[in-house]
Amino acid sequence: MIPFDFAYYQPSSLAEAGGLFAELAAQGKEPMYYAGGTEIISFSRLYQLFPRAVIDIKKIAECNMLEQKNGKLVIGAAKTLSQIQESNVFPLLSWCSGRVADHTMRNKITLGGNICSRIPYREAVLALLVSDSEIIIWGKQGLKKVGLNQVFHQTLLLEPGEIVVQLVIDQEVTRVPFTSTKQTMDGLVHYPQDRIGYPVVSIAALKKKNQINFAFSGVCSFPFRSTEVESFLNNPSLPWDEKIHQVAEKLPAEIINDMEGSADYREFVLKNMLSDIVKRLEG
Amino acid sequence: MVNLVKMDLIELAVNGEKRLVMARPADTLLHVLREQLGLTGSKPSCKNGDCGACTVLIDGQPIKSCLMLAVEALGHEITTIEGLKDSPIQRAFIDKFAFQCGYCTSGFIMNCHALSVIHPDAGDETIREWLQSNLCRCTGYEEITEAIKSVLAQEPKENNG
Amino acid sequence: MQKVGIGVSVPRKESQDKVTGLAIYNTDYLSPKLLYAWLVTSLYAHAEIKSIDTSEAFKVVGVQAVITGDSYHLLCGPVIEDHPPLAKEKVRYFGEPLAVVIANSEAVAKEAAGKVKVEYNPLPVVNSLASALKEGAPLVHENVAFYKQVKPNEIFSKAGTNIAQHVKIRKGDLPEGWRQSEVIVESNFSLPQSNHIAMEPRNAIAEIKADGQVIIHASTQAPFDVRKILCRCFNLADTQVIVNTPLVGGGFGGKTNVQLEIIAYLASQAVHGRAVKLIESREQDMTSSPGHLGLEARVKIGATRDGTMKALEITLEVDVGAYVDSGSQMTRAMAADCTGPYHIDHVWCDAYGVYTNHTYVTAFRGFGRLSYVFAIERTMDKLAFALGIDPLELRLKNALKSEDTTPTMVRLNKSSIGNLPACLTKIKSMMNWQEGVRRETGSNKVVAKGISCLWKTSSSPPDATSGAIITINEDGTLNLNVGTVEIGSGSKTSLAQILAEKLSMDVNKIHVVMDVNTGISPSHWKTVASMTNFMVGNAVLDAAEDLVEQLRSIASIVLRCPPEVLEVGGGKVYLKEDPEIYIEINEIGNGYEYPEGNSIGGQVIGRGSFIMHHLVHMDKDTGKGKLGPAWTVGAQAVEVEFDTQNYTYKILKAATVIDAGKVLNPKGARGTITGGMCMGLGYGSRESCLYGEGGERKNPQLRTYHLMRFGENPTYLVDFVETPLIVAPYGLRGIAEHGIIGIPAALANALTTAAQVELNQTPLTPETIWQAKRGKLDDSL
Q: Cβ separation of A7 and B5 shorter than 8 Å?
């Protein structure tokens, strides 16, 4: 039960959506773009969000496409995680997306929504970061395409009114070796399917030539791919054991210390999981 | 462009019927189904998408109706537990004793029904992935497992998880 | 006559309704006349309420009334009246209701509730048992001595402390017990509070009619208790209050507590008696309404070298939270059964119910047993290890049997205690125990087994009572009306089976009245304590006798013979020596008409009742007394596969063997047991109420409070032993709660064996095990 009112708009084009946003913002309605809406509804119910207007982008054609063309995979931001998972156009993305919430929820949660989520974890982002995906954003100047790693720092850096339209992934990358693991606070990670719950640690890794790209969630209070961590881990002159042992010193922020896992424990899991992942990719 | 800027009449397609309901834009589908249409089979429990007791089908796909706005359902086919008539999964739930208090049952049945239609040959892994979306506090899930398996194809194609 | 009632897996009577969405729960009660209430709850665990400003809330269009605690001089509680329904002067736990907004819709009520401004003056928070029991600790209740004791025989609080209840067991001569002991083991245990999480959140509707008639619609396990408590709180006659209870969406003890009914009554009063519906959000259900107790325990057991237990000293500190509710009774119940199902001559137990600034607690499946059993059963394993005896054999050696005495000095007989050795023997082969309790299976994996026993008596009031009414329809079917609530345990169906068996009838010809209305239904204490089939079952048998007597009396006239030569069965009254001479019961159930029109008889109404007998309150100084008519005993085991590198584990198997006396409904019984086991695995592995430094609740959602999910459950092995309880219908014993009781202990025993580190707390997450291992490592350095 959302205790306050908001207005709902369902534009059919990006321009229309952007125009609505500007107009509603000017009226002080604090509009929000709405895709799956699961977070807007649940946070509004708890008074953690107060939009006075929501703009549903699900009917905008560009946000809804899923195609493979000219060596590129293009995924609309309004595609649900289930649709992406089932299409299996990018297996690592399927794995990571398949760990968000639960199956029924993924019928509603969208890729764009997961990237823009306020929850610290955002598993789908991991696959997009390690694959050097590009993101297409609609703004005042029209569409722009940028590397996700350039605009994702803890959160996706968007100007007010900008819309995430699509993610573009080089199809080459969807065919290289990869792996990914998530552990929750409960003791049942052995089942690949038992993954409901926030991660204590979650890692996606992808091997391109001799380099392994890593992205992490559950370690710090935001998902990240860090140049420092990655170049340290890929340093060929040090043995893996030693690198993994020291990895905590290279992290971009403090390790999360909360009820799902203490910082010490997360570090322990991080190291175990990294060993396991390296074994799988290098083994 | 569909807009709903304040409480107004909207037409929903529910269980094969067109129904006019009065909804605020911020009203969830769960609220409108129950309070406006008296379809109380879909249950409020966590209202946070965590438990699945409110699961309905939207164009055949299971959706948690507590995290969907009623206005979002415009133009889609909504099926609630009241729209299922003598389906195999309903019979299986009785035969296998797959419920006790029954409060989670509608949501489980809707999810199971969608699974059996969409993936009639689902194996253990798919069953588990789908049905982990619903919580049951009374049973130990054993009988629900038996119920869903009894309506799916006898020889699953996937390996066991 | 065909097999009809007992021992048959009859699907529950309300099955069709439950699979079609037509089953009606209290949340489903809709009416345009309803107003809606929303709770304003405390953001502090312990604070003075400086002011509550409701003016902004009143401005929201559609608000009818806003009420706050300071308008009432009202204290409630089932044992001691320590609980203002809305906080007054100070708040004592995070989430405590302190005001209610009543409005035309739930959305408006909730919006306005968000505009109620509360100013607090924070007080030092009693955030743990240790801090509650410290010398000079801040007091959760300053004036315990002035509270009215509703049940003075049951509560022994200590003024000037946070000790709300102190129960003592003094059996035998403890120093002598230590002298006889050759091996002594000790351990400390810690188990957190947890939540019930019935899928239907707690809710209530109240209406007060012009003539003063109070109509309550409640999702409760105890409609008659709701009536009793409302009458006591508001000085009403019991004829003035009617409580209606439809199907209940799970209870697990959490719906024995009377809270929202009182608040809904106050809300209705504030709007001139209009009907007000109050449903808690899941977050409120988990913080504002009571949960399951927390426990700290210290256990010391002494035994001879051959494994004969001689002495037990046990201290139980129970976190009852901010108000006593039934916390004092659970404290008492744990003390009364404190040895576990083992014979020990010398027992000393001190059980304290302790106030803290945590959410208060109420009955939870097992009524406290699951917590102290964890402490006892972990210590049993430690003793077995110290003695070099197999843990199952140690239990077998000390299992209670006929002629032994309990901690409260009740002498047992075969009927009252059942057969625990038989349960242990069965589980031994089910779990393939002889292959060993720990084996390494390669690649950092260890498979380990753990065992636990359980026992439980009813802990009911000595005067607990039940009734039953049977009537006959024109078509010869029967109506059975009883006061038990259908909370999911299938009790209405079981009772129909008992009646079917008694009258040799097809169970499908017995209709049960599903809903309870306290104005119409025969009374029943509460739907709790696994006592429904025992208590109400006895009332049903009594009613059936009464019905049979009346039928035979009328039939004797029609069939022209003395009633003694007649028998009732299969819907007929027939001549014993010649069943071909009979009359159908529908011909005489509502009067018999002779061909010429003369009629005799009238409506046949079978009425029956039951009351507990020979129960005795516990003695204040020694604990001597009798809290229930008998015990249900059982053995449970868990097998895990543990990863020695990352401390994660998988639960492979869980087993239970219970002495059920008689299994009424095999499939139903198995489901009841496995459901309890699953809940026990959840509590053992992941569930706990987490409080922050200020006593604020950190995980009040199912997203952060984790339950067992589909497919995480192990393979269940369930079997029964049948030692009849001679005073029970067909010998049955209560089994509804028992599946949960020993499971956390069995899990901890398995994981302790697997990880080779003592695990004396829950939840047993991989992190807990890792921390224990690390602690051990640190200790040895």
A: yes
Reported as type and span, the H/E element at residue B102 is none
Each residue's pLDDT tens digit, A71-88: 999 999 999 999 999 999
The residues in A 80-139 lying below 8 A from C, measured between CB atoms, are none
Do A176-282 and A7-56 fall under one CATH topology? no
Alpha carbon C599 to chain centroid, angstroms: 50
Domain at A7-56: CATH architecture: 2-Layer Sandwich (3.30)
CATH of the domain at C570: 3.30.365.10
- Neighboring chains of A (3 or more beta-carbon pairs < 8 A): B, C
Please check whether residues C529 and C636 belong to one and the same domain.
no
CB-closest option in A4, A47, A190 to C648: A190
Instruction: Break chain A into its structural domains and give their ranges.
Output: 7-56, 61-173, 176-282
Establish whether this prediction's ipTM goes over 0.90: yes
Cβ atoms C249, C243 nearer than 8 A: no
Q: Is C771 within 8 Å of A265 when comparing Cβ atoms? A: yes
The domain that holds B144 is classified in CATH as 1.10.150.120
Q: Residues B98, B144: one domain? A: yes
Q: Are residues C638 and C737 in the same domain?
A: yes
Looking at the 3D structure of chain C, how many domains does it have? 3
- Does residue B156 form part of some domain? no
Q: Is residue B2 part of a domain?
A: no
The b-or-e profile of C260-289 (16+ CB within 10 A means b, else e) is bbbbbbbbbbbbebbbbbbbbbbbbbbbbb
Which DSSP letter does residue B127 get? H
Span C467-503, pLDDT tens digits:
999 999 999 999 999 999 999 999 999 999 999 999 9
Nearest CA in chain B to A196: B132
Window 93-152 of B: residues touching C by CB (8 A cutoff) are: 93-95, 97, 99-106, 109, 124, 127-128, 131-132, 134-145
Rounded to whole angstroms, how far apart are CA atoms C63 and C112?
A: 7
Task: Tally B–C CB contacts below 8 A.
Answer: 163
C-alpha dihedral (C325, C327, C332, C336), degrees to nearest 10: 130
User: Which tokens go with C649?
Assistant: 């584990």
Note whether B3 contacts A7, CB cutoff 8 Å. Answer: yes
Smallest Cα distance from C193 to chain B, Å: 17
Same domain for C451 and C470, yes or no, is no
Instruction: Quote the minimal CA–CA distance from A126 to chain B in Å.
Output: 21
One domain for residues C548 and C652: no
Give the model confidence (pLDDT) of A169-188 as tens digits. Answer: 999 999 999 999 888 887 55
Is B107 in the same domain as B53? no
User: Do B22 and B62 lie in a common domain?
Assistant: yes
Is position C714 within any domain?
yes
> Does one domain contain both C441 and C481?
no
Closest residue of chain C to A183, computed from CA coordinates: C648
In the CATH scheme, what is the code of domain A61-173?
3.30.465.10
Strand ranges inside chain B, DSSP E:
2-4, 8-14, 17-23, 55-58, 61-64, 77-79
Query: What does the alpha-carbon distance between residue A260 and residue C690 come to, in Å, rounded to a whole number?
Result: 10
Distance CA C321, CA C82 (A): 12
- Residues C411-438 have pLDDT tens digits of 999 999 999 999 999 999 999 999 999 9
Residue C2 lies in a domain: no
For residue B33, give both structure tokens: 């189904």
A117 CA: distance to closest CA in chain B (Å): 15
Contact A8 B5 (CB under 8 A): yes
Q: Which positions 6-65 of B are in contact with A (Cβ < 8 Å)?
A: 6-7, 24-28, 31, 47-49, 52, 55, 61-64
CB contacts, 8 Å: A54 with chain B: 25
Residue C107 has pLDDT above 60, yes or no: yes
B67 part of contact set with chain C, CB < 8 Å: no
Contacts of C771 in chain A (CB under 8 A): 265
**Between A and B, how many CB-CB pairs are < 8 A?**
100
